[in-house]
Structures are given as C-alpha cells and as structure tokens.
Amino acid sequence: MKIKNPNAGALTNFEVLDFLRSRGASRDVSRVLAPVAASEYKVYDYLVETPACNLTREKINEFLERCKKYDLAKAELLNIINIRPSQTVEIYTVINLLFLLALCSPLLTYKSAIRSCELRFWCHFLKLLTNLLYAIRVAHRAVRLYMLA
Which residues does the UniProt record annotate as the domain RNA polymerase Rpb4/RPC9 core (predicted)? Predict the structure, then answer.
C-alpha cells in the first residue's frame, strides 16, 4: 500500500474497512491468494470486530446530515462514527474528552488530541464509566420505586 497524498484527510474505520474489502481482504480461507499485505489483514481483522463492520455509507451520510444542526467539529463527527456510541451520555463523553484533551495541554492541538494513543484508552475508560453511571441511575430508580411502594 502506498500513500499518495498524506494530508488528504482522516478516514473513518468504515472507509478503511471498505477499502480493504475492495482489495480482497476477508476472513475466508482463500484470503492468502488476495493481493493484500499481512499488515492490512491485521487491520482488517481488527476492524471487523469494531462497530465499523455494521455501518453503511447511507447510515453515515444520514448521520452526518442529522448532525449538521449541532455544529460539531469534523474530529468529533469522525470519533462518533468510529466509536458509534449506543447511549446519549457516550456521545457527550467523546465530545467533552476531545475538548478537555485540547485544553489541558498547550502542546496538544485538536488534531494531535485525536491522534493521541491516550484517546482510545480514555474512550474505553469513559465508556466503562458511562455504563457504571447508567447502572447507578437504574439502581437509584429501583430504590425510589421501592420507597414509593
């Protein structure tokens, strides 16, 4: 794989997965015959385990169209598409995390915050925290219902 234009823009995980599929990457046993490098297979194997494997171009375009009214940065949209949050709280954590990473360190720009290795860790951490907060909220509701009964 050769890089033709290194600054052409960021790609979603879906776009990378779609590109690898177009080159012949798959989980089929005959994948050894395809003109795909071993490193590309590793990327492919990773991406099929992410939410990117369930996306379509239509879903992404519909999502981007719906998000125009919120005036989100391209980086925020890219991360939301890649992470594909299942709850509203998770969306806020992605947006707030990018904002905090850009603010907390004068060396971090918005772009480098996205490229940061820490971002993936913090997104997973915040997802776990979000699930914990959701469980606490459900437990709190259950206690309130029990108290009312």
Answer: 1-114
Say if residue 108 is exposed, middle or buried (CB neighbours under 10 Å; 0-12, 13-18, 19+): middle
Can you tell me the distance from the alpha carbon of 56 to that of 15, in angstroms, rounded to the nearest whole number?
A: 9
- Tell me, what DSSP letter sits at residue 41? H
How far apart are the C-alpha atoms of 53 and 17, rounded to whole Å?
Answer: 7
Q: Please say whether the beta carbons of 47 and 17 come within 8 A.
A: yes
Pair 99, 51 in one domain: no
Range of the domain at 41: 1-84
Chain-centroid distance of CA 61 in Å reads 16
CB count within 10 Å of CB 18 equals: 17
Does 137 lie in the same domain as 98?
A: yes
**What are the pLDDT digits (tens) for 88-132?**
767 767 666 666 655 555 544 555 555 555 556 666 666 777 777
Q: Alpha-carbon distance 19 to 11, whole Å?
A: 10
Nearest to 59 by CA among 93, 12, 102: 12
* 9 plus 23 within the same structural domain: yes
